[in-house]
């Protein structure tokens, strides 16, 4: 998926980003784009971004780093319902992992997701994320990726 790019959200694409929707059976797995953007307004550590396939917006993601020795998180990734099943989520995650490791000069990336979200779990595990045996404050499973010479 070479045509997937991660781009900043700006006044030119904000309205299109806000129209991203997930499937009805996924609504308990992740917040809406509007909720994510509101959270990013309060917590400036979050970096909301758009996901493009060619010149069309297909998704949204949010990442950030927190603390004195910051842990880096890819906290949200949402692929619009009409674009799911095309490999965009996996391709976007690969790019996001590279972006955050470069931007924050880290080799470890965290994410969390709701138990029962088997599609996300399969993607994350295929990319090398592993369950830490820990849960976040909302009860989500915490996964960690450790970059090594063999898996980057």
From TrEMBL:
Domain N-acetyltransferase: 4-148
Superkingdom field: Bacteria
Recorded GO MF terms: acyltransferase activity, transferring groups other than amino-acyl groups
PROSITE patterns: GNAT
Keywords linked to the UniProt accession: Acyltransferase, Transferase
One Pfam family this sequence matches: Acetyltransf_1
PANTHER family: ACETYLTRANSFERASE (PTHR43420), N-ACETYLTRANSFERASE DOMAIN-CONTAINING PROTEIN (PTHR43420:SF47)
Protein name: GNAT family N-acetyltransferase
């Amino acid at each position: 998926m070479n045509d997937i790019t991660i781009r900043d959200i700006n006044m030119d694409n904000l309205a299109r980003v806000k129209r991203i929707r997930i499937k009805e059976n996924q609504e308990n797995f992740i917040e809406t784009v509007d909720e994510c953007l509101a959270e990013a307004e309060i917590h400036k550590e979050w970096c909301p971004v758009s996901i493009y396939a060619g010149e069309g917006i297909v998704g949204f993601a949010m990442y950030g780093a927190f603390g004195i020795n910051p842990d880096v998180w890819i906290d949200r990734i949402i692929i619009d319902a009409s674009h799911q099943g095309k490999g965009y989520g996996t391709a976007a995650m690969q790019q996001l992992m590279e972006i955050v490791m470069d931007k924050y000069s880290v080799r470890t990336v965290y994410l969390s997701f709701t138990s029962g979200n088997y599609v996300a779990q399969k993607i994350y595990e295929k990319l090398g994320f592993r369950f830490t045996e820990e849960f976040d404050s909302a009860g989500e499973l915490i996964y960690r990726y450790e970059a090594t010479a063999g898996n980057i």
